[in-house]
């Protein structure tokens, strides 16, 4: 059977404009989409345009007053919200809803039988909190998608966040929840933004034991990254028995990405993806991969390509591809 890869993407994502020196810039998606259209992936991608997330689902995760402040800041022409790093433009509020809507679309499609879907979205989401924007993130795309999957379809959801930074927003939103399990691999938070993500943060109340932080020491590479999957995450997959998996897929842990001191290589991301694909087959759950960070414009598209090829079990056309 011929494989297809649904990619939920809107050209409107590029209308979230940031200043040229800002790392989270429209070119990130330009280079990814260009790469996806080339080679083997180009023959199988099926681009699907998302609709904006309905306000009712965004409010499941974000506070109404924060949303009002965010919308007003954009429409009034402010250049940032909740800290200078969170640059906005007139269109950012609207585009952020389309990014969240991409994950909702992916959830609907996996519920109709798709096994793997990629959402190359921006702005990213995993640092966004209920009451605030943080770390270039405004709406928590992954959390909104997980909440929708949980509430609308009654599923148990595992989130694996392999961005180099801890996804504080996702952790906090599901901290007291035992139906959405959050796992994050990230650089040692004692040195790294946003400073959360210690192993002792394990969840609270009903959610105790449903939050797993795996900090890696600075300069960790593929060995430590893969060890985290095999030794720490595999037992979670076996015990929690997720009915759906969302990957918060940041690629800033790559050795050539300046945003962190981790040294994961493209082969490391390929191997991690391969492990996740095997779990999804063995335990029979669909996977939605949602772009988070990754800022080296030469490396990011290669990381995405090897990730997708491994998730789809495609042979690389050429070893040089890695
Ligand atoms: Zn990051």
UniProtKB/TrEMBL annotation:
One of its GO terms (molecular function) is histone deacetylase activity. InterPro entries: HDACs (IPR000286), His_deacetylse_dom (IPR023801), His_deacetylse_dom_sf (IPR037138), Ureohydrolase_dom_sf (IPR023696). SUPFAM superfamilies: Arginase/deacetylase. Residues 22-311 form the Histone deacetylase domain. It holds the Pfam family Hist_deacetyl. One of its GO terms (biological process) is epigenetic regulation of gene expression. PANTHER family: HISTONE DEACETYLASE HDAC1, HISTONE DEACETYLASE HDAC1-RELATED. Belongs to the histone deacetylase family. This is Histone deacetylase domain-containing protein. It comes from Thermodesulfatator autotrophicus.
